[in-house]
Amino acid sequence: MLKKDPFGYYFFLKRFLILTLGTLTWFRYRVYNKVDISGMEELEKLSEKGVLFVANHQTYFAETILLYHVFSAHKNGIRNKLPLPWYLLNPKVRLYFVAALETMKAGFIPKLFAYAGSISIKRTWREAGKNINRKVDLKDISNIGTALDFGWVITFPQGTTTPFVPGRRGTAHIIKKYNPVVVPVVVDGFRRAFDKKGLFLKKTNTTLKVTFKEPLQFSENENAEEIIDKIMQAIEQRPIPPAVANL
After folding, report:
1. Which of 85, 108, 148, 236 is 20 to 30 A off residue 179, Cα-Cα?
2. How are beta strands 207-212 and 34-38 bridged, if at all?
3. Which DSSP state fits 7?
C-alpha cells in the first residue's frame, strides 16, 4: 500500500486516480465519440521500461488520457479496442507524460492528473503566453531519464497543440542521452471533439484515431536536426514545402 515510484508518488493513489479519471472519461471516448486504434501489435515487442512514445498534440489532456486507457487495456490483454473499462482496475502505472509545468499547475483537475504521472518541465521558449529564452533545466532532463529507467514515457515534441510547427530539439537530446526505444504515435480527431484543454466536449460522433507505428531507428552519427526531422515525418507533422502545397 505504501510503495512509491521514483518520484515519490504512492502507487495506490496513482491507481485510484487513473481508475477514477478513466471511468469518468470513458464515456467521452466510447459513447459520445468513436475510437479507432491501430498498431497495438507494436506494443507487444516493447520492454516494460526505456520506451519513449512521441506523438503529435491536439489538446492539452484528451489524447494523453486516452493513451492511459489504451496502455491499461493493453496491459490486460486487450488489443485495438476499448471495452467497458474493467481494465482500469489494473491500470498501467509505470507510465509518465511530459507536460509544461504551468499547464499542470493551472487548476484542480490538472493538479490531480499530474499525480497520475506527469513529468512537469519548465518551457524554455514560452511562459504565461509570452515568448521567452530560458536555458534548459538539467533537472527536467534528468527526471525524464528517471522515468525512462522505470517505465514508459509519452512526450509531444512540438510542445504545442498548433499543427505542423517544428519539433523541439530537447526531444532529440533526450534520445541521444538515454537511447530509448522511440515509438511514433499519430492522433487525430481530438481537436474537433474537444476544447483546447481537452476537458470539455465540443462535438460528438467524432472518430478519435490513435495509430502506433514501428519504432524509429537512429544512428550514432545523426544530429539533433536529423532526429527531429525523422520524428516529425513519422508523426505526420513535417510542414509541407510551399512549392508542393501550391501544386
Report:
1. 236
2. parallel
3. T
Q: Which of 54-58, 144-148, 217-221 has the lowest mean pLDDT?
A: 217-221
d(C-alpha 190, C-alpha 160), whole Å: 14
Q: CA 240, 242, 244, 247 torsion: positive or negative?
A: positive
Amino acid at 157: P
Burial of 116 (0-12, 13-18, 19+ CB in 10 A): buried
Closest CA to 65 of 42, 39, 99: 99
Whether 210 and 70 have beta carbons less than 8 Å apart is answered as yes
**pTM recorded for the entire structure:** 0.90
Taking the C-alpha atoms of residue 147 and residue 96, their distance in angstroms, rounded to an integer, is 7
**Cβ-based neighbour number of residue 210 at 10 Å:** 24
How far apart (Å, rounded) are the C-alpha atoms in residues 34 and 204?
9
d(CA 204, CA 209): 14
